[in-house]
Amino acid sequence: MHHFRIDLRSDTKTIPSAAMRAAMAQASVGDEQLDEDPSVNELVARVSTLLGKQKALFLPSGTMCNLIAVLVHCRPGDEIIAADNSHLISSESAGATALAGAQIRPVPAERGIFSAEQVAIAVRPQKVNAPTTRLIHVEQTVNRGGGAIWPIDVLRDLARFSRERGLAMHIDGARLMNAVVGSGVDAKDYGDCCDSVWLDLSKGLGCPMGAVLAGSDEFIEAARRWKFRLGGAMRQAGIVAAAGLYALENNVSGLQTDHQKARRFADALSSHECVLVGNPETNLVFFEINSRRMNAAQLAHELALEGIGIGVESATLLRAVTHLDVSTANVDEAAATICRILR
Ligand SMILES: *Cc1c(COP(=O)(O)O)cnc(C)c1O
Predict the structure, then answer these.
(1) Which residue ranges have their beta carbon within 6 Å of ligand 1?
(2) pTM above 0.70, yes or no
(3) Residues in domain Aromatic amino acid beta-eliminating lyase/threonine aldolase (predicted)?
């Protein structure tokens, strides 16, 4: 396995800082399964307030947040509407289908953002031979949409539509705080648009693991049962929750710096004729290369030889993600190295 000096493969690559580890070492803990862990209880209280929800639940991963939300909202044979490039469809081992028995209807969505009008077309008629449309699934920010932020007005339209039609709405907030920092919209305003929402602690917030799922009292009661059933209930999980509390206190405003680093990286690359790069809204930079000499995998390989890690999405598409552990100088070096290799 490579060790990268500069790891742009994902914002999951952050190593917990010394200060975060100190907070973890000092955490008060108890049996989380019995709601007796004070650090976990503090974390879920903070996140439910942040997202404007009645209650929240600490879970090992974002994937489990999505899965449990689907298990609570859907019965087998129900249908979920989600963007065709969503993480739910591409990167969660088909958990919604394999474990919840729900079918996903992909909506073609530029940058992962779709409208209430598109959903209106995708909702099934109430016929005995049609699946029952149950849930609208939205990613904020959109991972494979280049880190795009759903505008609050589009989300509100969708929320209004979902209420009118009796559908549930769920926000996958793996990078919700990136959207908050990037747009200036309150986390609570996003929370108000949906029945369930979660945020990941292990992405830009820099924690070793963990995610928090929020919703109504009733939703979280049902989610808690699924957490137990799936083996996600923990013991002295406060050790990890303390990292989350530390991150919410100290690592949120720094996401703005990650966004600046992403724009700087994109700007540096855009000067190169072989590279096609958009203007990143948050911390994800997708770029196309057009070189007769090499494809994306070969470029990634050349970069790896210089200690730089980058994500390969297709033969021509790459992804770079900025985070706490890459500096401005790292980003400059990575962009310069890419330009040098392609030249
Ligand atoms: C990373 C990610 C997830 C899954 O979160 P994990 O904590 O890695 O399980 C879900 N959705 C999106 C959009 C993600 O980027």
Answers:
(1) 61-63, 66, 87, 139, 143, 172, 174, 200, 202, 211
(2) yes
(3) 7-289
